[in-house]
Specification:
By secondary structure, this protein is of the alpha/beta class. The protein contains 9 helices and 10 strands.
């Protein structure tokens, strides 16, 4: 880690804006084309970006090598750097139809993302693990992810790219299992991407987990939330039963996640890499460009207040 050997308060994290924040992925959210998003990120004052690797942004279908080279020139002209390419995968997809080589398709897709990352100068390709599936037991689920990630990492290594495994899908969303998984993969360029929101919802001590994982992670992505209780009414009982709460996205510092403690734990343990900000769920106040811009600016202010940037 670059932060090793320096004072705690010399360690800084680089703010990057995830393009999913302006991609129109949830109802009412404004949709900017990729080049419009780059203009937006630069105007807001972000030094870097994390690019969503699907339409309407950085799709493998729309960005062959020459298009990626042109995109890198545009990034550099705007004073931006692409730190992470955000892949979207599920290694247990469509297990009902074993004759279809979904696993090979996904490994090939991630390999293509690594090639794009090399051209764009991005060090990391973010990947997911798997959703749990009734057709596969836990031990086989674990091994499937190990095998897929190992092959992805080995192919990405040829491009000098790290495969970052995010604690997002059902499998390995617990930080201890994530560590077990990456250790089992056994490739130096397969590393955890540890975010606070997932363990916060689990009730895990995510600040302690951040201290444990900080020397190993290659990226973290932030988003803050408030919980909105939900209930189902039973008229025959004249009463309610609780349902799973709605998780409402809010600007940084307005939710229940202790990001000051989380960032402090990362810094004190030597992490000084990139921290992404994403708005990939309906944001309080709506999806207008003005509301998204306010939240993005608030993220930069929050990092400064927290002494993380």
């Amino acid at each position: 880690m670059r932060g090793r050997g320096r004072g705690v308060y010399d360690v800084r994290m680089i703010p990057v804006l995830h393009s999913v924040s302006y991609a129109g992925v949830w109802p009412g959210q404004v949709r900017l084309a990729l080049e419009e998003f780059l203009d937006k990120a630069a105007a807001l004052g972000f030094p870097g970006v994390m690019l969503m690797a699907k339409r309407p942004h950085l799709s493998v279908l729309d960005y062959p090598a020459e298009a990626c080279r042109r995109l890198r020139e545009k990034l550099e002209a705007k004073g931006l750097r692409c730190y992470v390419i955000a892949g979207y995968n599920n290694f247990t997809a469509d297990l009902e139809h074993g004759d279809i080589p979904h696993r090979e398709m996904q490994i090939q897709h991630i390999t293509e993302l690594a090639r794009m990352a090399e051209i764009l100068g991005a060090a990391v390709v973010r990947v997911f693990t798997s959703y749990e599936h009734p057709a596969i037991g836990y031990a086989r689920l674990f091994e499937t992810n190990v095998e897929c990630l190992r092959e992805c990492a080995r192919r990405a290594a040829e491009c000098g790219v790290t495969i970052g495994v995010q604690n997002h899908h059902d499998f390995a969303c617990d930080h201890r299992t994530l560590v077990d998984l990456v250790d089992a993969v056994g490739e130096p360029n397969c590393r955890p991407i540890f975010d606070a929101w997932s363990p916060a919802l689990h009730g895990t001590d995510y600040v302690a987990a951040a201290r444990e994982l900080a020397p190993r992670i290659c990226h973290t992505t932030a988003a803050d939330y408030q919980l909105r209780p939900r209930f189902r009414y039973h008229p025959e009982l004249v009463n309610y039963t609780p349902e799973t709460p709605w998780v409402q996205a809010v600007p940084m510092g307005e939710g229940f996640i202790d990001y000051r403690g989380f960032f402090r734990a990362l810094r004190e343990s030597g992490y000084d890499g990139a921290v992404g900000y994403e708005m990939c769920a309906p944001l309080l106040g709506g999806g207008s460009v003005e509301n998204l811009d306010r939240a993005a600016r608030r993220f930069l202010e929050f990092l400064e207040e927290a002494g993380a940037s």
